[in-house]
Amino acid sequence: MPMSLSLSLRSIGSDPMERVVQLASESAVVIFSVSSCCMCHAVKRLFCGMGMNPTVHELDQDPRGEEIEKALSRLLGNSQTVLVVFISGKLIGAMDRVMASHINGTLVPLLKEAGALWL
Questions:
Q1: The pTM is what?
Q2: Number of domains in the chain
Q3: Integer distance in angstroms from the first to the last C-alpha of the chain?
Q4: Does any domain span residue 2?
Q5: Fewer CB in 10 Å around end: N or C, the chain?
Q6: C-alpha dist (Å) from residue 71 to 33, 82, 92, 99
């Protein structure tokens, strides 16, 4: 089940949490990833295999990636943040939540509702 983010996009500045909200809202499916992470690769392949082209932000290739990763960690409430997925600007979670949603059949309806998947 997606979690709602309640930050205003009016004054996007240098705050990493505001940057996360801005980036997460820019397209139907947004993935925050690390390019060398095999679990990140698996989730990106899952979405691409469904015929989607998610927006991917590789944190290890972003000058502010470490700050963004810390903000994502605060959102998830843990320190092990590498992969984080947003659908329609709503936090879905890390790999475990994405895969659980895929297995229990709730991922596809979320993607259809977001306009990311048509079939």
A1: 0.85
A2: 1
A3: 21
A4: no
A5: C
A6: 13, 11, 15, 22
